[in-house]
Amino acid sequence: MLIGRLGLEKARIPHSDRHGLVWLDRGRLEVEDGCLRFVTSGGGELEAGDYQIPHQSLSIILLGPGSSVTHDALRLLARHSCALAAIGEGAVRFYTAPPLMPDTSALAREQTRLWADINKRMEVARAMYAIRFGEIVRTRDISVLRGQEGARIKRSYQLAAERHGISWKGRNYDRNNPNSGDPANQAINHAASAMRAAASVAVASVGAIPQLGFVHEDSGQSFVLDIADLYRHDVTLDIAFGAVKEAANGREALEKLVRRRAARLFRQRSIIPSMIDRIKMLVGPDRELTDEGKI
């Protein structure tokens, strides 16, 4: 644990050398004797206790349900460039986060450079598809890429349904009424929302620009959607169809089951740390595309 003092700038650690993020819930984030502490009576992921938080070595703190934060804690975090995000249980919702102001603009500048060059943008998009489908896509036409994605994801739906023993009649999504579909379609909608929240955490953690996507274009969260889609064909569908199977007993609402399953899988599979690594691989200044994402 690193010991800091309010208002002092010693013990600063560059974001590139920080450990990423820490999850806290059902407690109070406060400052005592110049140190950041989290006091909880238990009931969440942490046992009851008083924990010192090494804010200088973190990029972002994720504060879950049942928690509060003091003004002094916010001031200390801002002073040491550690972001704070309010999240749902297990990061299945991303409510708000103060802007992260990293000590370097390298990743954001590299993301912008790649996005601004139409050829480089296409290279990153192809790398994203290579990650998703395990093979290099030869085309350099984004519309063709999207068409290939549609065919593959349709097959992924069918395979996931068969794996979990769920009846599947095809994707049916009404943007104006997302709860109008059958249970499987509703579960996919809820799981996709949870995955977008996790991607929002990852994008905020590294100080990337959410508006500059490489496959998605129009949304103000285009890059968030790009990162969430890297997990769409396996993790998102596993969350959704697994929850539908679990809901067969009719004891709990489907959305609640999806959220709980998503929170569990996010932790078990280290989804957010994986997203952070992939963002750095795709658009980081020191990126090295591996065989799975090689252009």
Descriptive notes:
With 295 residues, the protein is of the alpha/beta class. The chain has two domains: 15-87, Ribosomal Protein L15, Chain: K, domain 2; 106-283, CRISPR-associated endonuclease Cas1, C-terminal domain (Four Helix Bundle (Hemerythrin (Met), subunit A)). It is 45% helix and 12% strand. It has helices at residues 71-79, 106-116, 118-133, 142-164, 183-206, 222-229, 232-246, 254-268, 271-283; strands spanning 21-24, 27-32, 35-40, 49-52, 60-63, 68-69, 83-87, 94-96. It has a four-stranded mixed sheet with strand order 1-5-7-8, sandwiched between helices. A four-stranded mixed sheet has the order 4-3-2-6. β2 (27-32) and β3 form a beta hairpin. α3 (118-133) runs parallel beside α4, α5 (183-206) crosses α6 and α5 (183-206) crosses α7.
Q: What does the secondary structure layout of this molecule look like, with pairings?
A:
Layout: E1 21-24, E2 27-32, E3 35-40, E4 49-52, E5 60-63, E6 68-69, H1 71-79, E7 83-87, E8 94-96, H2 106-116, H3 118-133, H4 142-164, H5 183-206, H6 222-229, H7 232-246, H8 254-268, H9 271-283
Parallel strand pairs: 1-5, 2-6, 5-7
Antiparallel strand pairs: 2-3, 3-4, 7-8
Helix pairs in contact: 2-3, 3-4, 4-7, 5-6, 5-7, 5-8, 5-9, 7-8
